[in-house]
Design the sequence.
């Protein structure tokens, strides 16, 4: 799997290949971008391309080095992720110790730190020196979907590569290639909003159920079913909600908000994220004001980021509702 | 793969492997050792991220081949078998190693040899041959001063090989230990300066023979003793410019009995503060006064007679740092060279054998 097999992010690929060609791949890299856009895949392709025995600007995927890296058994390429909730300083120390040792088998050592925003403060600070003056034979690639949680001192020491959500068209093509029917591929590619990994994981039934649930939630928010329905369904019953699922519901909800705003502003119907809900949405056009939709979007955003920070789900939902009421 | 060997032959090698293989769980394959059998010889290879060891022994090989097996388990199994017995090793089709001896049988899960990292080889073309005993003595003199903490450039000792001489230097920022030895016939193309990891030094100490061959490439150092070869990844960092730290002008010199000096330090250090372990030495005409105090416990004083005619000097030292030197110096008397209350002290054994030994210790405020 070379660069071409990573879907989307052509700009990042171009930058990396150019760097490989000039043999000037930065030693400290920070990949930022939304979840599921293939940052980790890209990091591993880069690790292989740097070490590939054919020494081109891509990974050949055939030489023993590429194969070993793909199989995660090359001792010079490490993947480090959070242990529990955080990435701890001991993990970073072990990494640094290895980073100052010449590579064992490969040409370069590559350390891929996944969810780098989960580094706690001591762990982050311990990296400052090595990020600033990394040994020539070690590359450290930090991956994050939450760049604002990364210390600015870390950011300023890394070459930052911004990943963008994978284009709808790219996802749709990929899904069709994987054998999805055209219509489903289109809806999934719209719903996942550039999150390619999610697109590949989703189960159609599940996504439909989620959307219906989100639709019900959306209706209750617009006040059509009265507040008690909302409270019963969401605020009081939050215990049965699984956090992750709720996040997804909110994201779908946001997509309804967006679509409704689009319709109200007489936008291009082809841009609808939920074309199959088009008629139902049009029926709501009168009931909802732009301001309300805007509120709803920003509140949903707030709750999603609150969930990321482990805030109490019940309280979040209550505040969501009460703020929406105004 | 199939071979048999007497317990003692393989046990020694497996024992050495225990110091090498990875104990943390970073990479399961590194907890394994690679066992390769070919024509009358079996080769064991173990490595962690820093150090690798290759060792060979003779065995009755029926069938060649190689496989990797848990280094800890194979060692424990071999160790548990009765002494003097022949042990049979065989690889079966299910990626298992069968170990049998007498009526005992074991089957151990293995990992394929392809997963094992390639451990580099050296040609030993440079013909750098070092006397092992001397090096072990030198390692003893620098080992304790290697820094423990997170400064990677200090996590090993600097080895310098030049014409007819070998030098080893270590420092942790508070003290510096320097040894050099005259080695006839040493003639590298150019001066070699490399940092040797602490773990590698510890492994060299465990070896015994009369000579050791040394070689290096871009990434690795190689030390070969007999049938064993240590491979040590080069630590990429600049070692501090230690020559600049060596005091040039320490005019006040005195000789101290090593034994009585270290005993006095041990006594006085009993009441030194836990953290600094500081003792104060007051060197005046023909005597050294030792003093320590700990506000929570009390104070201690001692006194040593020496020959000294210079001015009074009063310095504080970490008692452990003093003892480290005194323990590793092999002479009966040691020589202290001082300048003033705040400058580094130089210590050497009075009579230098074929190994020159210099210890530089920074004073501390007490």
Sequence:
């Amino acid at each position: 799997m070379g660069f071409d097999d990573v879907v989307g992010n052509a700009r990042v690929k171009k930058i990396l290949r150019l760097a490989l060609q000039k043999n000037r791949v930065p030693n400290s890299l920070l990949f930022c971008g939304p979840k599921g856009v293939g940052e980790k895949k890209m990091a591993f392709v880069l690790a292989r391309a740097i070490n590939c025995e054919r020494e081109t600007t891509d990974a050949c995927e055939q030489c023993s080095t590429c194969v070993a890296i793909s199989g995660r058994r090359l001792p010079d390429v490490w993947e480090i992720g959070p242990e529990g909730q955080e990435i701890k300083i001991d993990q970073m120390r072990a990494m640094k110790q290895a980073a100052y040792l010449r590579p064992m088998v490969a040409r370069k050592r590559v350390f891929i730190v996944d969810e780098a925003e989960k580094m706690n403060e001591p762990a982050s600070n311990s990296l400052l020196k090595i990020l600033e003056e990394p040994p020539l034979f070690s590359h450290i690639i930090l991956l994050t979907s939450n760049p604002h949680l990364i210390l600015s001192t870390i950011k300023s020491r890394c070459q930052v590569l911004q990943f963008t959500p994978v284009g709808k068209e790219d996802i749709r093509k990929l899904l069709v290639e994987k054998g999805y029917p055209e219509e489903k591929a289109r809806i999934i590619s719209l719903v996942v909003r550039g999150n390619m990994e999610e697109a590949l994981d989703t189960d159609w039934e599940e996504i439909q159920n989620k959307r219906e649930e989100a639709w019900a939630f959306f209706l209750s928010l617009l006040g059509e079913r009265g507040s008690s329905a909302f409270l019963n369904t969401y605020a009081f019953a939050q215990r049965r909600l699984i956090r992750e699922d709720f996040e997804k519901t909110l994201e779908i909800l946001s997509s309804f908000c967006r679509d409704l705003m689009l319709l109200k502003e007489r936008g291009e119907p082809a841009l609808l994220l939920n074309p199959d809900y088009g008629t139902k949405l049009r029926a709501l056009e009168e009931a909802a004001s732009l301001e309300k939709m805007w509120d709803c979007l920003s509140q949903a955003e707030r709750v999603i980021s609150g969930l990321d920070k482990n805030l109490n789900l019940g309280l979040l939902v209550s505040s969501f509702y009460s703020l929406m009421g105004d | 793969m199939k071979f048999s060997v007497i317990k003692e032959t393989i046990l020694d090698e497996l024992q050495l492997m225990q110091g090498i293989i990875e104990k943390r769980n970073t990479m399961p394959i590194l907890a394994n050792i690679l066992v390769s059998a070919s024509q009358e010889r079996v080769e064991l290879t173990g490595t962690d991220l820093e150090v690798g060891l290759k060792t060979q022994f003779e065995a009755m090989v029926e069938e060649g081949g190689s496989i990797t097996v848990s280094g800890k388990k194979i060692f424990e199994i071999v160790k548990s078998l009765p002494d003097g017995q022949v042990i049979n090793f065989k690889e079966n089709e299910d990626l298992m190693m069968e170990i049998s001896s007498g009526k005992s049988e074991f089957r151990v899960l293995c990992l394929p040899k392809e997963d094992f990292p390639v451990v580099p080889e050296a040609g030993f073309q440079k013909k750098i041959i070092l006397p092992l005993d001397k090096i072990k003595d030198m390692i003893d003199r620098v080992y304790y001063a290697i820094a423990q903490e997170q400064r990677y450039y200090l996590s090993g000792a600097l080895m310098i090989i030049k014409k007819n001489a070998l030098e080893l230097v270590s420092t942790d920022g508070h003290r510096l230990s320097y040894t050099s030895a005259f080695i006839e016939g040493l003639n590298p193309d150019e001066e070699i300066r490399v940092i040797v990891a602490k773990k590698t030094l510890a492994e060299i100490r465990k070896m015994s023979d009369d000579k050791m061959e040394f070689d290096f490439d871009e990434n690795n150092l190689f030390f070969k003793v007999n049938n064993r070869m240590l491979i040590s990844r080069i630590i990429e960092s600049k070692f501090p410019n230690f020559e600049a730290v060596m005091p040039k002008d320490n005019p006040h010199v005195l000789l101290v009995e090593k034994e009585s000096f270290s005993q006095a330090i041990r006594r006085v250090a009993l009441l030194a503060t836990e953290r600094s372990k500081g003792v104060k030495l007051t060197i005046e005409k023909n005597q050294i006064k030792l003093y320590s105090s700990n506000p929570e416990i009390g104070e201690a004083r001692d006194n040593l007679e020496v020959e000294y005619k210079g001015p009074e000097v009063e310095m504080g030292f970490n008692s452990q740092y003093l003892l480290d030197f005194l323990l590793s110096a092999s002479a009966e008397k040691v020589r202290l060279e001082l300048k003033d209350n705040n400058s580094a002290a130089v210590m050497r054994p009075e009579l230098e054998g074929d190994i020159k030994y210099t210890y530089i210790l920074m004073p501390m405020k007490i």
